[in-house]
Amino acid sequence: MQPMHIHILGICGTFMGGLAALAREAGHKVTGCDTGVYPPMSDQLRALGIELIEGYGADQVAFKPDVFVVGNVVSRARLTDGTPKYPLMEAILNSGLPYTSGPQWLAEHVLQGLHVLAVAGTHGKTTTTAMLAWILECAGLQPGFLVGGVPLNFGVSAKRGAGSSFVIEADEYDTAFFDKRSKFVHYRPRTAILNNLEFDHADIFDNLAAIERQFHHLVRTVPSQGRLVVNAGEDSLQRVLDQGCWSEQVLFGNSPRNIDGYTAQGEPHDFTVVKAGEPVARVQWSISGVHNQLNALAAIAAAEHLRVAPESAALALAGFKNVKRRMEVRGVVHRSGGDMTVYDDFAHHPTAIHTTVDGLRRQLDGAGKTNARILAIFEPRSNTMKLGTMTALLPWSLEQADLAFCHAGGLDWDAKAALAPMGERAQVADNIEQLLAQVLAAARPGDHLLCMSNGGFGGIHAKLLEALKQ
User: Fold this and answer.
1) Percentage of the chain with pLDDT > 70?
2) Which range among 70-74, 190-194, 324-328, 377-381 shows the weakest confidence by mean pLDDT?
3) By three-state DSSP, how is residue 462 classified?
4) Average pLDDT in the 208-223 region?
5) What pLDDT, on a 0 to 100 scale, did the predictor assign at position 148?
6) For the segment 201-211, what is each residue's pLDDT rounded down to a tens digit?
7) Which overall architecture, per CATH, does domain 5-103 show?
């Protein structure tokens, strides 16, 4: 393939940054821009020799790339004074210069001719994608991958790979301002995991039915010789399949619907993998949570489509190190009355928060630490949460936490009212400094401090650790 020059708008996002790394690895010249060019992605990209520009200045058209690759952060929005928020995009349009979306460029220049394994779902996409890539790597298949995070086994979010397979996190968010289809319709997978499906992305979807329609668009692209790996416990996914399915279906999860598929027997950290009633493998690992047990079943079923035996897949998972910012221990402060542990997790949807807190509670109970307290520290930062669409679910999502601390700065809804059912167990702060003071006043030896956000959270993890040490 002839090398080209691509200029990426919104390059520091996890998807666009991964795309940039893949393009650079393939020998293309890559430049890009973003607002607040920020680490860790900025450091990763500069290490690859990719020039990064701060902001979306119209003067960047002078770079004259072969094509501008536009991230979905870019829009035709205007500022209060009437000027364009993204002047570079206006210059591209006015000059008639070539542009495309990230998913479209990826489909045309990276995924062509490969066996694509796509991982879709409201929750667990990143972790399951990383699991599947690791299983294929351990099987010697040298897969390529693009993950919306950093798998600790690989240390990078994207890699071209030397084999004939490519594992991709298949996001249902829209492609670009000029292509409102979900990203995943571009990928044309031969193997697709449908992990779960519930309402999210309230900024672009009106209701759950609208998301189900997009998931069915994905199902339509899977060939008849392909495989759909589907969570049997999700009514929403069953409704998607009821709209039409033309591929092999393999179910996973302990549900009455699942007769011939993959189920699990045992605890999430040590369980037997059962297929059609027969034990086929055993997974023993350090990962916690029923959700990760389900993720593992999905990855094992998908890998089998590439003739990786479940037993081999289970052995690979024994060495799986999870993904950065998924229950990542950021530090431990040793105290005479018990160690204080600070975690970082990406949970940003009520179901994900509930799953994460519940997983930590089960982990502590399993270790005999039934009296250990969980302090849930979170910020409603996703577009869905900022809109206040799911505030009624917050008390439920935090039911396993002993105390909850919410960073409510910038919200248009009343976080105190939303958390009122929790009584004195919940506190709300308008800024990071106030939040930090609240947590420090309540924390005591032996506590587990679980920070949850899909953003940087004002660096609260490092601030907590530093303050606790003092």
Assistant:
1) 97
2) 324-328
3) helix
4) 94
5) 85
6) 666 777 889 99
7) 3-Layer(aba) Sandwich (3.40)
- Please indicate, yes or no, whether the overall pTM of this predicted structure exceeds 0.85: no
Spatial CB neighbours of 302, under 8 Å, sequence gap ≥ 6: 117, 119, 132, 191, 193, 227, 229
For residue 102, what are its two tokens?
């990230």
Write out the DSSP string of 287-308: ---HHHHHHHHHHHHHHHTTT-
Task: Read off the tokens for 112.
Answer: 């062509």
- The pLDDT of residue 459 is 86
Q: Are strands 158-159 and 144-146 parallel, antiparallel or unpaired?
A: antiparallel
Neighbours of 172 (CB within 10 A): 23
The β-bridge partners of 407 are 429
Give the pair of three-digit tokens for residue 27.
């020998």
d(CA 193, CA 199): 18
CA triple 242-244-247, angle to 5 deg: 115
* Residues near 203 by beta carbon (within 8 Å), at least 6 away in sequence: 383, 384, 387
Residue 234: phi, psi to the nearest 5?
A: -105, 110
* Residue pair 68/98 in contact by the 8 Å Cβ criterion: yes
Residue ranges of E strands in 285-370:
328-333, 340-345
Distance from C-alpha of 298 to C-alpha of 171, rounded to nearest angstrom: 17
Alpha carbons 58 and 219: distance in angstroms, whole number = 39
Query: What residue segments make up the domains of the chain, in order of their start?
Result: 5-103, 111-317, 328-469
Q: Three-state DSSP class for 152?
A: coil
Name the band, by pLDDT with cuts 50, 70 and 90, for residue 327.
confident
Q: Rounded to whole angstroms, what are the CA distances from 58 to 53, 63, 317, 364?
A: 12, 11, 47, 53
Reply yes or no on domain 111-317 having CATH 3.40.50.300.
no
What is the structure's pLDDT at 360? 87
Per-residue b or e along 19-47, where b marks 16 or more CB atoms closer than 10 Å to that residue's CB:
bbbbbbbeebbbbbbbeebeeebbebbee
Looking at domain 328-469, its CATH architecture is Alpha-Beta Complex (3.90)
The band of 53, judged by pLDDT with boundaries at 50, 70 and 90, is: very high
